[in-house]
């Protein structure tokens, strides 16, 4: 249990649901969904209880009504599902969320599509989520809205006088980039319906304050406050952590997996298959490493797991083809009868296997082009006793994890050099750096994050003391 408990029920709102109900030949099964936001928040909800409002995206989700108790194995909180039509899924989710906002906020503006139909459905879907919140929230509720899919919800529910906070899980870009969105005012005003808005890093929070100024809001930079009409909106920095205990409590059973992979060193990468994660660049860097360091041929393997993600969105299908081709080319060129340089899996893995992969890996390779935080790197550090981390300077996690080998993900040469440094790092240095990283991940875990956010949030409702001695 956490020390900081909110004095009212928590109503959490996200696009993705934490658990889906799926029909199989064995009947309806309940499955945990993959993704950073769900990973972080399921741990939170298990501790606080309350209601989670999310899109019921699976066919069997509504078979027993729109409200269920989850996690299915040991229910401790309520999931209220929102039903979206096919048109809303297409234009709100795959369209505005994933083909407009996602690329813009990850600096892939050339991929962004600005389409009025997308926008209209985004407004409509946000209205549905807002209504679902109003159905379950009471005057005492603390409503916590998450991520870029739901930026309009705070201002839509504001009239009902709930306490509202928002957490933005992806990067917040500078005004130069944000200003390209034709609906920038609506999005910004939507978010400002919150009393507190959280980001992963100082840099994103500064960008947000800069955008507020550019849009004409009065900003108090020292106190990180945006004045919006007669209200103050507090902007805060809360780098998300992981459920540290969950990763340390798994016993080491990685030797079975390890013995099946040839060579002295295993490098590991696991991501949703997404163009922002830098997976293609990682493959090219590994190829360059093998070319420049032939002594490592047959002795090193890159294991890359990619989870299918947003598979109906064109850019993701294109990227999958490119990745298939790239892995095929590299393996075709360098494989021998008893060595395959890259082992590539396009599938989700269970939690148990995820931890086995982390434990067997000598090096984790995390090279996103842009990433709000990145939980994979923290999970690896928690799961291992020692290891080496190669981390993109453009992952939010790089602001904290400075003992990693930090690389520029656009620079293939730098990543290849990083791999060399990692596999040849002296034991002493490896241990020293890893212990420092482990200390940080242990200290700022998911409980720390939640407590920091909740205590900042509650403070906003404590009435200020009248100044003593004033007339
Ligand atoms: P994501 O973009 O989803 O999250 P990330 O933070 O790396 O990215 O989290 C991915 C999660 O999915 C991890 O918990 C990982 O273990 C899991 N995962 C990935 N591939 C998997 C697979 N094949 N099988 C099973 N599990 C898999 C968004 C932002 C991030 C931010 C988080 C949290 O884009 O920047 O860190 O939210 O705020």
How would you describe what is shown here?
By secondary structure, the protein is α/β, with parallel strands linked by helices. The protein has two domains: 10-237, 3-Layer(aba) Sandwich (Rossmann fold); 246-443, Rossmann fold (3-Layer(aba) Sandwich), CATH 3.40.50. It is 40% helix and 20% strand. The chain has 16 helices and 18 strands. The chain has helices spanning 36-48, 86-105, 116-136, 153-157, 175-178, 184-191, 202-214, 244-248, 255-258, 279-292, 314-334, 351-360, 376-383, 412-423, 427-443, 446-459; strands at residues 10-13, 19-24, 27-32, 51-55, 67-70, 77-82, 142-146, 163-167, 196-199, 218-220, 225-228, 231-237, 265-272, 300-307, 342-346, 363-366, 388-392, 405-407. A ten-stranded mixed β-sheet has the order 5-6-4-1-7-8-9-12-11-10, sandwiched between helices. The protein has a six-stranded parallel β-sheet with strand order 15-14-13-16-17-18, sandwiched between helices. A hairpin with a 4-residue loop joins strand 10 (218-220) and strand 11 (225-228). Helix 10 (279-292) packs parallel to helix 11 and helix 10 crosses helix 14. It is globular, with a radius of gyration of 23 Å. 46% of the residues are buried. The model has no long low-confidence stretch (mean pLDDT 94). Adenosine-5'-diphosphate-glucose binds at residues 34-37, 39-40, 169-170, 240, 270-272, 305, 307, 348-349, 354, 371-376, 379.
